[in-house]
Amino acid sequence: MEEDNMQQEEEKSSFSSNDYNPCPICLGPVTHEAYLDRCFHKYCYNCIARWAKFFAAQNSQPTSILKCPFCKSDNFSIVYECEGDSFQRHYINQDPETSTFYSRAHKFRLRCYYREPGAISDKFNVLQYWKVRRYLQPNKWLQIWLKREIQALTQEEDVDIVVHHIVGVIESFMRQNEQGISKRTIEQNREYFKASLCDAARPFLMGRTEHFVNEVELFLASGLTIEAYDDVYSECLETPASSAISEDEEMMPHKLNTELPYLHFFDEDSDAE
């Protein structure tokens, strides 16, 4: 009898907690949680996607703003797939498929980040790069490469501030070593460099930070141009790089990997899987 009462209390508590903060649109328990980026009101993924369709249909011109159906505040993106320190984000009316900056090379590089980290690590002698202090040599392609990588990962065009911040961390590291300030061993120097980059990039790249930092190290150690580095990846993954993507492979990131879904506000069927 006592066990039955405890079970009833647990069910009642669970029911109350689910009903306490229902989806403002369907008024039921929230499923596939999604949030608006300014007001942080929570909705079912499907509900806010359908609302975005409706809101877009009411405007004669495309808009990058989505009004919250609950508080009527302006928002610019929908945040979803929140897991630990990673999440997905869709900016309203800024689909990479129609963006001029999001090239085939961006799509190819995003594919690389959904492979196992270190997919091409055996192609370059990273330890030698640190032993002979090649990190003191400036890389004239680094800034352009960083911009493309961060654009590919965030799917935002304006990433200059982020790039400037990360370049600043790398240059500061180089100055410390050039002036002989650092007394660290080779391995300590390497770990310090990667830890510093992680701290700089994590606010912007979240769960992809460590993979990104590994890629930065590999690109610097390779000594290759951007195109040559892509070619190495292409050969290792047996996947065409930017200049060789076939029509069948000309697709968006959400089709390239099932872990990266995107909302399509103007499609008829927007239900999440």
TrEMBL record:
Kindly name one Pfam family recorded for this protein: zf-C3HC4
| UniProt GO MF annotations | zinc ion binding
Q: Coiled-coil regions in this chain?
A: none
Cite the RING-type domain residue spans from the record. 23-72
Its domain of life?
Eukaryota
Q: Which UniProt keywords apply?
A: Metal-binding, Zinc, Zinc-finger
Zinc: is it a keyword of this entry?
yes
Q: Does the keyword Metal-binding apply?
A: yes
List, alphabetically, the InterPro entries matched.
Znf_C3HC4_RING-type (IPR018957), Znf_RING (IPR001841), Znf_RING/FYVE/PHD (IPR013083), Znf_RING_CS (IPR017907)
Name of the molecule in the record: RING-type domain-containing protein
